[in-house]
Design a protein that fits this description.
Keywords: Membrane, Transmembrane, Transmembrane helix. The protein has 14 helices and ten strands. It is an alpha+beta fold and 403 residues long. β7 and β8 form a beta hairpin. α2 runs antiparallel to α5, α6 runs antiparallel to α8 and α11 packs across α14. The two termini are 26 Å apart.
């Protein structure tokens, strides 16, 4: 129950969705029992639609995501463990995105019903209202299509289709929302006599569509085509080296070779510093024992003396070598240089294509910048064969006890 329906993601989804549905039910009930139809109009329903869409795109903005992680990661440090555990689930913020999208669709259906009822009161259908009908029902088709394609089962089995529908139909829907707002303003000027400009300026939808559009366009202002050096580690893995900026652990960057179709987020690995000679004295840190037990040593494992000649060293040998042996610049690619790496492993169609045909240039978006210590959680099959000695040793040097 806790990990399925009771997950934090679904609890957030339920909270946002129920708040919308309860509000909608109350307004519909008030509309049904009252003779005053002005208590619930299509204009009010459209405000709820646009408000939910604004929440949907805002919560996906990377600066907003950084802000949430900073707030929940910083302010909860002095709280009891239970509160800190809950704050650590901030990554479930996607529940707001999903619930807002579902709620916006139901509000939009209500808007369309009220709009149709209002327009049917007129004796004839004007040209502007015929276009409003056309645009409005096309928007409904787009919203329902995006909702259906986002179902977990369809999203897993037809992920590329989901991405395409979500992107292209989402952009088209925003354009049509702008067209709808303009057409409704034209219709209002014909019935009320107010000017077109004044009608727009007093419309909440107009003012919410502006930040919605800017939030969607903003990531594209950070899109850059960067040169990249591909370093093939195995048939299942490739390392991409970038030199355009420095980063630190905990950041991420989005990569793509087709910006209009898809982007993929990856964690970044800063280029290593030029290693200093390791000091061996009585004050040196003893890495031969950890909380997980003793590490191999020359006394209990003679193979370590032949480490450099071993074509397939064990993880224990790699860990011992990483923590007890000095690292030379020759052992690390790009040591002391400006830049960072991204490791791409075979996890789908796009990654498989990048591994098979490593690019010389690729599109990037600027990395995110959380500022907090990180631990390494790594799940992989045969790490030495897949990623190579250098990567495995780098993992152990960064975190002697990776999970």
């Amino acid at each position: 129950m806790r990990w399925n329906f009771g997950s934090v993601y679904r609890r957030i989804f339920s909270l946002v969705y129920l708040a919308n549905i309860i509000t909608l039910v109350v307004l519909i009930a008030r509309y049904a029992i009252s003779a005053d139809r002005s208590k619930f109009t299509y204009q009010q329903a459209s405000i709820a639609v646009t408000g939910n869409i604004l929440a949907v795109v805002t919560v996906r903005n990377e600066h907003m995501v950084n802000g949430m992680f900073w707030v929940f990661g910083t302010w909860s440090k002095n709280l009891p463990l239970g509160f800190r555990t809950l704050a650590a689930k901030v990554y479930s913020y996607g529940g707001i995105h999903s619930a807002g999208a579902v709620s916006a669709t139901f509000w939009y259906i209500t808007f369309l019903v009220l709009l149709t009822m209002e327009f049917q009161k007129a004796e004839s259908l004007t040209v502007s209202r015929s276009y409003i009908y056309l645009v409005s029902y096309v928007i409904l088709l787009l919203l329902v299509s995006m909702l259906v394609s986002a179902h977990p089962h369809l999203r897993r089995t037809m992920h590329n289709w989901f991405e395409g529908i979500h992107r292209c139909m989402g952009w088209l829907a925003i354009l049509l929302f702008w067209a709808q707002a303009m057409l409704l303003a034209v219709d209002s000027t014909q019935t009320s006599g107010t000017s077109f400009g004044k009608t727009l300026l007093v419309s909440p939808n107009f003012w919410m569509l502006i930040p919605i559009t800017l939030l969607i366009a903003y990531p594209w202002t950070r899109l850059r085509l960067r040169p990249v050096e591909a370093e093939v580690l195995s048939q299942h893995c490739v390392k991409l080296n970038f030199t355009y900026r420095n980063v630190h652990f905990g950041q991420a960057v989005r990569l793509t070779d087709a910006p209009l179709r898809e982007t993929h987020a990856f964690g970044v690995i800063p280029f290593p510093a030029v290693p200093a000679p390791m000091k061996h004295d009585q004050g040196s840190t003893d890495y031969t024992h950890t909380e997980k037990g003793p590490l191999p040593s020359k006394e209990n494992n003679n193979n370590h003396s032949d480490y450099s000649h071993d074509s397939n060293p064990s993880l224990a040998a790699l860990k011992h070598h990483a923590l007890t042996s000095p690292t030379t610049a020759g052992q690390l690619t790009h040591a002391g240089e400006r830049g960072f790496s991204v490791i791409i492993s075979n996890a789908g169609d796009w990654t498989k294509k990048i591994i098979a045909c490593p690019p010389t240039h690729i599109y990037t978006r600027a990395p995110r910048t959380p500022d907090h210590p990180v631990r390494i959680i790594w799940s992989t099959k045969d790490p030495v064969k897949t990623y190579g000695r250098q990567v495995v040793e780098l993992v152990y040097k960064t975190d002697p006890r990776p999970w």
